[in-house]
Design brief:
The chain is α/β, with parallel strands linked by helices and 377 residues long. The chain is 40% helix and 15% strand. It has twelve helices and twelve strands. A six-stranded parallel sheet has the order 2-1-3-4-5-6, sandwiched between helices. Strand 10 (272-275), helix 9 and strand 11 (298-301) form a beta-alpha-beta unit. Helix 9 packs across helix 11 (338-355). The protein is globular, with a radius of gyration of 22 Å. The two termini are 21 Å apart.
Length: 377
């Protein structure tokens, strides 16, 4: 075939990041990106940085993490030497050890002149950079300054990059999740309101406040129950929380860590999802989108980008962080008004369809990658 008829090379994207298991936000979204329509526009390579051990190992200084970092760094250098990369994409850690691991990829890519897209899945990067040791702070500022694009999960989160990244470098791409494909709810169900919490059982996720709020409602004689789906992060804290539980498993249940299939079944069997988070790393929780896809109203907090997901009074209710009394009041309202609860769930489903589907997310991600390519590529 003559040069004049030779097909142009498809732009090549290297996706750096972990995939499940274990299940956490970055791994889930990396898997979603690899399974998306990205490959219809780009040639996609993947550098898998997964650590198959428990989520608790993330960000820890131990021999296993050091060895993994060196292995992944070596694989990256081989890929960079052998393949012409048009874009390098990486989710960025917001702790010192994770960030230094990421720098093993980002510094060589930037030195080679490859456009770099950083994806910030957390909500405290500005705080991390300001509090980091001086050498790490300087390295972070240099990487942010030279990145072609920095993705944040909500408009609210632009501010954390003030002084680090020019506003024109920032792209806002809210998360998206797969369609739950559940049948629309025709009624609010039985008299009992079934509450579900999905997330790691750490106090900053608000699960102990939810326990307190549910017990308040049960003490008032209200017909509610709650299921907690998530792993225990601190056995001592959890034991102390359990010591105050006055009701049996028919009212307060702990399902432990669950996979995507079981989580979908639990959401389908519930009436409202509650995530009263004040978690420092929170940004744009996937579980809220999963609940909305399942047609559930959401009770959550005015924290991070959550108010960009939940429309207070329309698709759910928002309270202030750490407000157990406000949480009890919100749940009391939904328990007493099943028709309003049902209407909110339907509105949540519509909002999911308009804003937070995987195809919509994929379109936004492809647009970001295309924006850093040279003209005509």
């Amino acid at each position: 075939m003559s040069a004049g008829f030779r097909q142009a090379r498809c732009p090549r994207v290297l996706v750096i990041g972990p995939v499940p298991p274990p299940y956490h936000g970055v791994a889930v979204m990396t898997r979603a990106l690899l399974d998306s329509g990205l490959a219809e526009r780009f040639e996609v390579l993947h550098l898998d940085t997964s650590d198959r051990r428990d989520v608790a190992n993330i960000g820890r200084l131990d021999l296993g993490n050091v060895q993994l970092a060196l292995v992944h760094g070596t694989r990256f250098m081989r890929l960079l030497a052998r393949s012409q990369m048009d874009v390098v994409y990486a989710p960025l850690s917001q702790n010192t050890l994770g960030f230094l691991r990421d720098a093993l990829f980002l510094v060589p890519a930037l030195a080679a002149g490859v456009p770099v897209v950083l994806h910030l899945h957390g909500g405290r990067y500005g705080e991390f950079v300001r509090s980091a040791p001086v050498p790490v702070r300087g390295l972070a500022r240099s990487i942010f300054k030279r990145a072609s694009r920095v993705i944040v999960l909500g408009e609210t989160l632009r501010g954390m990059l003030r002084g680090l990244v020019a506003d024109g470098q920032i792209s806002v791409v809210p998360n998206g999740v797969a369609d739950a494909a559940v049948a629309p709810r025709e009624s609010a169900g039985g008299a009992r309101m079934r509450i579900i919490f999905v997330g790691n059982l750490i106090p900053s996720k608000g699960y102990t406040e939810l326990l307190d709020a549910v017990q308040t409602l049960l003490d008032e004689g209200m017909d509610v129950d709650v299921t907690f789906a998530g792993g225990v992060a601190d056995a001592a804290v959890h034991g102390k929380a359990l010591a105050g539980v006055r009701y049996g498993e028919d009212r307060v249940r702990f399902a432990g860590s669950v996979d995507a299939h079981v989580r979908a079944e639990l959401l389908a069997a519930s009436d409202v999802l509650v995530l009263p988070s004040h978690y420092g790393n929170e940004a744009h929780p996937l579980v809220l989108l999963e609940a909305m896809a399942a047609g559930l109203p959401v009770v959550s907090t005015r924290h991070a980008a959550i108010p960009e997901i939940v429309v207070d009074g329309a698709t759910g209710l928002l309270i202030e962080p750490r407000d157990a009394a406000g949480l009890a009041a919100a749940l009391r309202r939904l328990a007493q008004r099943p028709d309003e609860r049902l209407a909110m769930g339907r509105a949540a489903r519509r909002r999911y369809e308009e804003r937070f589907t995987l195809p919509r997310w994929t379109e936004r991600m492809i647009a970001v990658f295309e924006s850093v390519l040279p003209a005509g590529q």
